[in-house]
């Protein structure tokens, strides 16, 4: 009989009924008091094997015996390993891989423990993939996020061989072979990402743990791999761009000592250099907001001086000039200021005069690659046509030269009747490339003197004739 109240004493009488009616009641039973009983058996148990363990689950008994169920016990067979829980699942650990097990479950309430469930289907524990890594933490940088974690609680019975972190969106990844941190790069600043961390062993890859982060913009990362090579009047510089930090807008390259600089959006440039000077070159990345990253640097050997050719370069443009414009005639020992353009900024240029090249001086160009250099025409320079040449490099580091043709009017140290030939005979250090003008000049002077003499005689004769015509006629005494 159901519907009674536990703790209340009851007696029961029984009557019989047929087609005519119900007969008299029996004598009353002895009094009894209903009370809770143990639960019935748990239902539909299942088991899933893992590494030296099995996860068992079930549904609650059909009856709790009139008292709430306080717990369940799962027991393995063989071996008797067990687990206790107040939920509808638990894991039995300490099993032997390769051994088949079945599991039964009993429920307990205040009245006691009920009957065991039917046994599960047999399962055999074996090594498995690791469980998920734990406690992931993400640290944002510019265009990157660094993720750290702790090892899984269970390696699945096989040593963990590596971890993988995958970003979403985009699928950027980083991996390790045992370290509990790695950095995902190539991300977009300001975009929110989630990162899934998984562990892998010989069996496979386990479930993931997740963490979210948003990369934050900052200054560009450091420039690396700076290479600086000294050349003629120049320095070739190249480098590797940053792999972290904000996007690079341009690079600033400087040389020390001196003031040579360049700004470029590429990963190389050419700086002007002064002969004999060794430089330290520094490269910095700059983003669109003007934020400057950590510099990279390199040192050079001394810069080389421009090479002077044995003959003036015929292909050099006739663009060399002076502070008085382009001149064509100079005198030995004359001082003049030579002007040059188109050279690398803050680089060495050398000025020479031909035939046999004589270096007149060197000069360091200004920030625009120009120079103004005072020089002196060698006093012993022979009369004739000569070539002034300025040598150096252009802003790209290629050979750059310019020239000017001049004529020396008279050799130094000769008299009016002297000649360039006489100067050469005295051991001039520079051979003449022009015609000898001394002899024609002497002849011209002689002809001029002769003409002046004839003119003077003629004038005197005309004066005498005029005097005679103006005198009074003589009287006849």
Description:
The protein is mainly beta and about 475 residues long. Among the domains are: about 45-115, Sandwich (Immunoglobulin-like); about 135-215, Sandwich (Immunoglobulin-like), CATH 2.60.40.10; about 225-300, Immunoglobulins (Immunoglobulin-like), CATH 2.60.40; about 320-425, Coagulation Factor XIII, Chain A, domain 1 (Distorted Sandwich), CATH 2.70.50.70. Helices cover about 10% and strands about 35% of the residues. Strands 23-29-28-25-26 form a five-stranded mixed β-sheet, with no helix packed on it. Strands 4-3-6-7 form a four-stranded antiparallel β-sheet, with no helix packed on it. The longest helix is centred in the C-terminal third of the chain and has 33 residues, at about 440-470. Residues about 410-460 and about 465-475 have low confidence and may be disordered.
Layout of helices and strands:
Blueprint: E1 43-50, E2 53-59, E3 71-77, E4 82-85, E5 89-93, E6 102-109, E7 112-113, E8 134-141, E9 144-150, E10 162-168, E11 173-176, E12 181-185, E13 193-200, E14 209-213, E15 224-231, E16 234-240, E17 250-256, E18 261-264, E19 268-272, E20 280-286, E21 296-299, E22 321-322, E23 329-330, E24 335-340, E25 348-354, E26 358-364, E27 371-376, E28 384-393, E29 399-408, H1 420-425, H2 438-470
């Amino acid at each position: 009989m159901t519907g009674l109240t536990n703790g209340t004493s009851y007696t029961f009488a029984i009557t019989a009924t047929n087609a005519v009616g119900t007969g008299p009641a029996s004598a009353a039973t002895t009094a009894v008091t209903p009370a809770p009983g143990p639960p019935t058996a748990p239902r539909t148990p299942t088991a899933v094997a893992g590494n030296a363990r099995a996860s068992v689950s079930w549904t609650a008994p059909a009856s709790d015996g009139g008292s709430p169920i306080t717990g369940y016990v799962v027991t393995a067979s063989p071996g008797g390993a067990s687990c206790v829980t107040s939920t509808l699942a638990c894991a039995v650990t300490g099993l032997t891989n390769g051994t088949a097990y079945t599991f039964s479950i009993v429920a307990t309430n205040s009245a006691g423990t009920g009957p065991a469930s039917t046994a599960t289907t047999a399962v055999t524990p074996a090594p498995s993939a690791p469980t998920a890594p734990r406690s992931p933490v993400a640290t944002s940088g510019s265009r990157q996020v660094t993720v750290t974690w702790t090892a899984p609680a269970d390696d699945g019975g096989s040593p963990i061989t590596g971890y993988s972190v995958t970003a979403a969106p985009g699928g950027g990844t980083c991996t390790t072979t045992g370290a509990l941190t790695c950095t995902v790069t190539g991300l977009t600043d300001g975009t929110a990402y989630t990162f899934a961390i998984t562990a892998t062993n010989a069996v496979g890859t386990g479930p993931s743990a997740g963490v979210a982060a948003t990369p934050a913009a900052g200054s560009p990362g450091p420039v690396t791999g700076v290479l600086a090579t000294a050349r003629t009047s120049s320095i070739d510089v190249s480098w590797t761009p940053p792999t972290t930090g904000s996007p690079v807008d341009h690079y600033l390259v400087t040389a020390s000592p001196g003031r040579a600089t360049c700004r470029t959006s590429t990963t190389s440039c050419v700086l002007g250099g002064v002969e004999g000077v060794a430089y330290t070159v520094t490269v910095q990345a700059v983003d669109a907001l003007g934020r400057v990253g950590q510099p990279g640097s390199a040192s050079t050997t001394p810069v080389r001086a421009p090479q002077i050719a044995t003959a003036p370069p015929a292909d050099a443009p006739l663009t060399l000039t002076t502070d008085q414009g382009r001149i064509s005639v100079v005198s030995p020992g004359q001082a003049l200021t030579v002007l040059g353009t188109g050279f690398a900024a803050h680089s060495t240029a050398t000025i020479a005069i031909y035939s046999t090249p004589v270096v007149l001086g060197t000069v360091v160009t200004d920030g625009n690659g120009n120079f103004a250099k005072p020089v002196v025409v060698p006093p012993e320079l022979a009369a004739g046509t000569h070539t002034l040449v300025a040598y150096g490099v252009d802003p790209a580091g290629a050979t750059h030269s310019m020239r000017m043709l001049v004529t020396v009017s008279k050799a130094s140290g000769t008299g009016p009747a002297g000649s360039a030939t006489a100067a050469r005979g005295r051991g001039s250090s520079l051979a003449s490339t022009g015609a000898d003008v001394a002899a024609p000049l002497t002849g011209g002077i002689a002809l001029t003197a002769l003409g002046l003499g004839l003119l003077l005689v003629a004038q005197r004769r005309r004066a005498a004739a005029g005097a005679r015509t103006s005198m009074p006629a003589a009287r006849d005494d």
